[in-house]
Design goal:
The chain is built from 15 helices and 13 strands. By secondary structure, it is α/β, with parallel strands linked by helices. Strands 1-7-6-5-4-2-3 form a seven-stranded mixed sheet, with helices on both faces. It has a four-stranded antiparallel sheet with strand order 10-11-13-12. Helix 4 runs parallel beside helix 11 and helix 5 packs across helix 6. The chain binds pyridoxal-5'-phosphate (PLP).
Length: 460
């Protein structure tokens, strides 16, 4: 915990900690200077490509452009369309453009529609609650279940907790794709939706969406494709000639999708798109109240008031890139990822999991991969740890497409593996914790650790 506290509070000894309002307001210039100084310390790491995922574009010109868009729209709130019809226009067009990229729109499946949300997690929460409410209304289901591959994002488990849906886990096959036969056995009369990822967060592997969506269609239930990572990459990868399996609304069984503008859409943090095959389905997402003392009330997502500036940024980013821009970015992304993947495959102690395109997970039968991650940390890298099986991944972004970054990653990884091979015991700090998380008896201890982490995060 002390190490975590030090990570969360590196400024404790150098900057004043505010636990109550200052009596008199500080000068704006002073506040800006302090913030610039803090951001300046944090920037070099992500800017020079040491982070997995996290910052997907990060180019100085692009950031400046998005900041200008934010400044123009900083007061706007789509809850008040009478004041800001521009916010409504931007959001509606972001949804329409995303739908047309993913098999909807004029030339695709007619009727695909959606809303903007605050991020991938909210898009997934909204979709799962929509299926629960649809099943309750149309099929009188009171004990809803969702069939979810174990590689799907934690947001699905979160949805299960929030909305009292039973999550039925689907195992993976040897290629880290959802096992369709197992999924077929797990669908019951209470199933409200089947989930697929394109690709999934841990291994960057695309599930067999065609078979899973067909399974759902045969049972007359929904199929959600989590395309939070892939929505703004796969359409262009396909155009570039990569072997992309079918994954979107062109498959008749796909009934909803999530795609994140704030990841590879290269917008600022705070937006995602959730899409539905029909407006009838989308309506289960809406909250409406005809009897509230405060007047007639409607909101499409969990928030009430929202920033219209974030939708404006997504719109501006999409227009600034266009189809050509996204295709060029995807080409650079996938070529860099191929270099990184080949580099990992060239290290005899490591093994790439599955057949990924740009989120590349690696494990090892010989050495502790968490110790390798520690070594990478000490060289400045910030990778993601995975479990079941133990592994780590790098989600390649445009930050890694800068000159020399992929080569630096591979060289540092080789050096890290060599150090771990020579380490007595050779165990990383995370290995025992993941070990405890994997055992039923000690899982609660790790969950308590996570809760304490949460407490720490909001302790000034
Ligand atoms: C496949 C996938 N789905 C959902 C999410 C959740 O997105 P967010 O962190 O924007 O809530 C992520 C995040 O990385 C993801 O990779």
């Amino acid at each position: 915990m002390e190490a975590l506290e030090a990570e969360l509070r590196p400024y404790r000894n150098t900057h004043h900690t505010y636990t109550h309002l200052p009596e008199r307001g500080r000068r704006r210039q002073e506040i800006l200077a302090e913030m610039r100084e803090l951001a300046g310390r944090e920037e070099p790491k992500w800017r020079s490509g040491y982070a997995s995922g996290s910052v997907y574009h990060g180019g100085a010109d692009h950031i400046e452009f998005l900041n200008e868009v934010y400044a123009i729209n900083s007061q706007s709130n789509p809850l008040h369309p009478e004041l800001w019809p521009s916010a409504v226009k931007y959001e509606a067009e972001v949804v329409a453009m995303t739908a047309s990229m993913l098999g909807g729109g004029e030339e695709g499946a007619q009727g695909v529609c959606g809303t903007i949300s605050s991020g991938g997690t909210e898009s997934i929460l909204l979709a799962m609650r929509t299926y629960r409410d649809q099943a309750r209304a149309e099929r009188k289901i009171t004990d809803p279940e969702m069939v979810v591959p174990v590689s799907a994002h934690a947001a699905f488990d979160k949805a299960a907790h929030y909305f009292d849906i039973r999550l039925v886990p689907v195992p993976l096959d040897s290629a880290f794709r959802a096992d369709v036969e197992a999924a077929a056995r797990l669908v019951s009369s209470n199933t409200v939706a089947v989930v697929a990822s394109a690709p999934g967060f841990p291994h960057g592997v695309i599930d067999p969406v065609d078979e899973l969506s067909e399974l759902a269609r045969r049972h007359g239930i929904g199929c959600h494709v989590d395309c939070c990572l892939g929505g703004f990459v796969l359409p262009w990868a396909e155009r570039l000639g990569y072997a992309v399996p079918p994954f979107d609304f062109r498959l008749p069984g796909v009934t909803s999708m999530s795609a994140d503008t704030h990841k590879f859409g290269y917008a600022a943090k705070g937006t995602s798109v959730v899409l539905y095959r029909t407006n009838l389905l989308r309506r289960f997402q809406y909250y409406r109240n005809a009897t509230w003392m405060g007047g007639l009330y409607y909101s499409p997502t969990f928030a009430g008031s929202r920033s219209g500036a974030l939708g404006a940024e997504a719109w501006a980013a999409m227009l600034a890139f266009g189809q050509e821009g996204y295709t060029a970015a995807t080409k650079a992304l996938l070529e860099t990822a191929a270099t990184i993947r080949a580099g990992i495959e060239g290290i005899p102690e490591l093994e790439v999991l599955g057949d990924p395109l740009w989120v590349i997970a690696f494990g090892s039968d010989d050495i502790d991969v968490y110790a390798v991650m520690d070594q990478m940390n000490s060289r400045g890298w910030s990778l993601n740890g995975l479990q079941n099986p133990p592994a780590a991944h790098i989600c390649v972004t445009l930050r890694h497409c800068q000159q020399g970054v992929a080569e630096r990653f591979v060289a540092d990884l080789e050096a890290s593996v060599q150090v771990v091979r020579r380490l007595p015991g050779g165990r990383g700090v995370m290995a025992p914790i993941y070990g405890m998380a994997g055992a039923t008896k000690t899982r609660a201890t790790v969950e308590e650790l996570l809760e304490r982490y949460g407490d720490l995060q909001f302790k000034a």
